[in-house]
Amino acid sequence: MTEPTIDAEIRRLMADFAEEMRPLHEARERMAEVRGHGEAAEGLVRLEVTPGGALSGLTIDPRAMKLGSEALAEAVLEAARAAAADAAGRLSETVGETMTPYLEDARRFYDSL
Prior knowledge:
single chain; elongated; 113 residues; alpha+beta; 3-stranded antiparallel beta sheet; 2 helices
């Protein structure tokens, strides 16, 4: 092979690799946008978290103030647990959708050995 042919082949391989990686980059973006939602105290406390569990939104209905400080604190924690579970489920779903084709390819490769 001549050098220009090698360069063209390397460029083609790099372009192929970039195309193969595109779904993974898109999945990373979708995963970053995942938010989990939870509520407690009959909807008076609503909470949103990021995939890492960081609080990204909190709404406390003014009627929740009648719960008292301990009950309100427990409601916030309950909503946070629900939101974290929701975020984990959504994240798992996104990862599963993304990885399934790759796992199927790996399974076919393994079966061909």
